[in-house]
Amino acid sequence: MTPSDNRILLLLPEAFEGSGGIQMYCRCLCLAAGRWAERNYGSVCAIVLNDRTAPDMRYVSDGFGAFIRTGGSKMRFVRSYLTQIATSKPDLIVIGHISLSPLALLAKPPAKVSVIAYGIEAWRSLTFAQRKALRRADRILAISEYTRSELLKRNRLDPSKVTLLPCSLDPHWFVDDGPQADPSSPPILLTVGRLMRDEAYKGVDSVIQSLPEIVREFGPVDYRVVGYGDDIPRLKEIADRLAISQYVTFMGQLSEGRLRELYRNCSLFVMPSEKEGFGIVFLEAMAYAKPVIGGAHAGTFSVIDDEKTGVLVNRLDVKGLSRSILRILKDDELRLRFGRAGHERLLSRFTFKNFENNFHSFLDSHLGSSRESRGIN
């Protein structure tokens, strides 16, 4: 067997240019694919649409033959893809976003094609080209059962081709043991996410609207919101109108070290989002054994086990959200129990090792068959 026997081509939307969930998922794909290639005499090439900066080499191992950044140029992205098809003849093409799935139609046998179904983009009726591409694909990898079910509900696809490859905690997300927050200080409520107008569904506005009742019944709290976006002025206006702006701090984008400090010191992580494909930020909070409140919607059900590792609430039920926050803040034993159970759930289901094992099993089955079809022993 020679290194050319296992050639993996990753077509990714973004990996190292941003800090969202899909970027983390793509970084995990890079790391897991590279490690598999190292162990199986293979090579990986990644073509990344929106990346401009150099990759973090912690995720790009010796198993990589190339990491091609096209800086947002779709023309360069497609041209690089066609070049790889013609010159490297990959055995397996993994397309990291449904918006890129029509590229599957350009793949030539015996190459196999898999497409990642991540979140909201998979919960609708797809375009003709996207449906055709998914039918051409050998496998569709959905990040949650909700994404799988919504994709199948709205598109006529073979259910046997749609399997799960859940998200995981970033393998380099280290839990440090620094000093805890002063218990005499107001408890810290934390939300981490993009604050864009078109992502208002994350529910930061609902948390802000819940604060007057919380402050009246419990006393001062310190609500920290991490992230950036064009929805911040609207959110600040809500806080001003409710006269609780002194309890809300918009932190902007933080370094990983500062973010870890906030997770370590918070009393509760809360993000009642309606449209999470999964919700990796909940895993980050669980890594610090923090109780979590999420939305009783979409892919969050895959992460939070309601009333066992946290609480699920309707994003628009502000009173219900207030009651859930108050209940956890007032009950130290409940807060600790939810936090411990969430941490155990993370360790049993959502570590990078789980992700890597699942992805490696997928690669073993698909690339083994690909080699056999080419007559390679």
How do you describe this structure in short?
This protein has 377 residues and is an alpha/beta fold.
Architecture overview:
The chain has 377 residues and is an alpha/beta fold. It folds into two domains: 3-168 and 351-373, 3-Layer(aba) Sandwich (Rossmann fold), CATH 3.40.50; 188-349, Glycogen Phosphorylase B (Rossmann fold), CATH 3.40.50. It has helices at 21-39, 74-87, 128-136, 145-154, 204-218, 232-241, 256-265, 280-287, 300-303, 318-330, 332-349, 352-373, and strands at residues 6-12, 42-48, 64-69, 92-95, 112-117, 139-142, 162-164, 188-192, 222-226, 248-252, 268-271, 292-295, 310-313. The strands form two sheets. The chain has a seven-stranded parallel β-sheet, with helices on both faces. A six-stranded parallel β-sheet has the order 10-9-8-11-12-13, sandwiched between helices. Strand 1, helix 1 and strand 2 form a beta-alpha-beta unit. The longest helix has 22 residues, at 352-373. The termini are close together.
What are the key terms here?
377 residues; alpha/beta; Rossmann fold; 7-stranded parallel beta sheet; 6-stranded parallel beta sheet; 13 strands
What average pLDDT do the residues reach? Answer: 91
Order of helices and strands: EHEEHEEHEHEEHEHEHEHEHEHHH
Largest beta sheet: strand ordering: 3-2-1-4-5-6-7
CATH architecture level-2 label of the largest domain: 3-Layer(aba) Sandwich
Into how many domains do the coordinates divide? 2
Largest sheet: 7 strands, parallel
CATH class wording of the largest domain: Alpha Beta
| CATH domain fold name of the largest domain | Rossmann fold
- What would you call the shape? elongated
Q: Which blocks of ≥5 consecutive residues have pLDDT under 50?
A: 369-377
Number of helices: 12
End-to-end span in angstroms? 7 Å
Fourth-tier CATH superfamily name of the largest domain: Glycogen Phosphorylase B
> Fraction of residues in helices?
40-55%
How much of the residues is beta strand, in percent? 15-25%
Radius of gyration, whole Å: 22 Å
How many beta-strand runs?
13
Question: Structural class per helix/strand content?
Answer: alpha/beta
